[in-house]
Amino acid sequence: MEYEIYLKSIVKLHQNTLVKFMQYLSRVLDYGVKYDYLVKNVLSSYKAHTKETKKEYLTAEELQRIVEKEITIPRLSEVRDCFVFCCYTGYAYKDTSLLCSDHLVTGINGKKWIYTSRQKNDNVSNVPLLEPALNIIEKYKEHPVCVSKNRLLPMKSNQRLNTYLKELADICGIPKPLTTHIARHTFATTVLLTNGVSLEATSKMLGHKSIKTTQIYGKIVESRVFLIDCKFYPKPVK
Prior knowledge:
mainly alpha, 238 residues
């Protein structure tokens, strides 16, 4: 209890982060018990509840605005394309930065897919390449960075990318904190669930361990009850 109070008052952790810290510590204590360093895990009976957080994502109109925005600055244009790619594949920053030509395959439907596993948990995360994402890959096929590093996209460092995304949000008039994680949420909600893709299929494409994680997105997409034709693609990036 003293450790929990310390994390709350001194370190000032968010409740959900605090719970994660306690879980990590409990794993270490379990290891100690398993190899006879400790008699018991004093956290074995510890219970804590996480708070439900709001998942920010872009609406179809906001995503369209970013796609169609005329950008003449090369670095921002590249960042915009990488962000839009994440919006149409759902990959996190680390996964996107490691994608190479070896991950591109032709699926049983004759269409292009990306076959890979998430770096975070090694879960399979196979995603069909929608037209906007495929166009972006084609656009950077001859880019010097992509050629020299055998990568699909010229990804910046995570820190630099997030800095440029703030700039992109300003020029596009998006009042939300653009990050690659918001792109992942946008893929789950605006691109998949809103267009009637099942929770099970969405969970597989996101590489979630449990469908319970995916159900969070299902709760925030109330418009699913008014399903429309699954033809939502902003115009291809030029």
